[in-house]
Amino acid sequence: MKTAVLWDIDGTLLSIGPSVLHVTFSKVTGVSPLKSFKTHGMVDHEILVKLCKVNGVKPNSKTLTTLEEESLNLVKHWVSDGNRREELPGVRAVLEELDANSEVSQGLLTGNCEERAWMMLETADLNHYFSFGGFGGDSPNRIETARRAVATAPAHNHLVVVGDTPNDARCAKAIGARSVIVLSGAFTRAEIEAEEPDAILESFEDAETSVKAILD
Ligand SMILES: [Mg+2]
Fold first, then answer.
1. 117 CA distance to ligand 1 centroid (A)?
2. Which letter, b or e, does each residue of 121-135 get, where b requires 16 or more Cβ atoms within 10 Å of its Cβ?
3. 133 CA to middle of ligand 1, Å?
4. What CATH number corresponds to the domain at position 197?
5. Distance 9 CA to ligand 1 centre (A)
6. Do 143 and 108 share a domain, yes or no?
7. I need a surface site. Which of 14, 46, 89, 214 has the fewest CB within 10 A?
8. Nearest to 44 by CA among 62, 60, 17, 22
């Protein structure tokens, strides 16, 4: 059986970092204080449109393009200053084990735009585990992003989404994938259970249990 595993980045592979989009939005639009909201599980495009709307800024294409470009510049500076994102405990051992399995291919399913996603993973030296992906920069929502990830995956007959939000579990259902949700993000077990994922993990610290949950 060939399995394609679609990994979320923020809160799943890497600990949640500073909100690049919020910082960029304030800088570009001059809106301060910023009206914010919970963005976990949303893609960049959705977040930027909503940030505009709740803060009284018209989300036209020029503004959105500027925000996307500036957020990428911000991250480039952040990385060139030597900043690094932290991998979550146990993640590397799970990626290693799946990487060694010739029946498994690993890709990304993330709300980050593609360039930022690879840059972030590179700072934690995790980029080399992934060969394809769906990215949020140019998709309207996570389900569309997931469909793009599936379209770029090597041939497979089993699909798994690994994430940390209720949205990841919903998205997995929408594309007919199994879902494994880790409780390392910003949501409670009850909030995750409400979406009935196929498996819930406390963390990836037990590699054997984690791999079993992913390949079950
Ligand atoms: Mg996440």
1. 12
2. bebbebeebbebbbb
3. 15
4. 3.40.50.1000
5. 6
6. yes
7. 89
8. 22
The CA 194 to ligand 1 mean position distance, Å, reads 17
pLDDT at 39: 86
Structure pTM? Answer: 0.93
How far is Cα 59 from Cα 160, in angstroms, rounded to an integer?
34
List the domain range (segments joined by +) for residue 156.
3-16+85-215
Q: How many domains does the chain have?
A: 2
Distance 8 CA to ligand 1 centre (A): 5
Contacts of 63 by beta carbon, 8 Å cutoff, 6+ apart: 28, 29, 52, 57
Cα 142 to ligand 1 centroid, rounded to whole Å: 11
CA of 22 to the centre of ligand 1 (A): 16
The answer to whether the CB of 36 falls within 8 A of the CB of 191 is no
Looking at the fold, whether 133 and 163 belong to one and the same domain comes out as: yes
In the prediction, which pLDDT does 138 show? 65
- Say how many Å lie between the CA of residue 169 and the centre of ligand 1: 11
170 HSE (CA, 13 A, CB side): 13
At 126 the pLDDT is 98
The predicted structure's pLDDT at residue 205: 97
Average pLDDT by consecutive 10-residue portion of the chain (216 residues)? Answer: 96 88 92 86 90 94 93 93 94 98 97 93 97 86 92 96 96 96 92 97 98 97
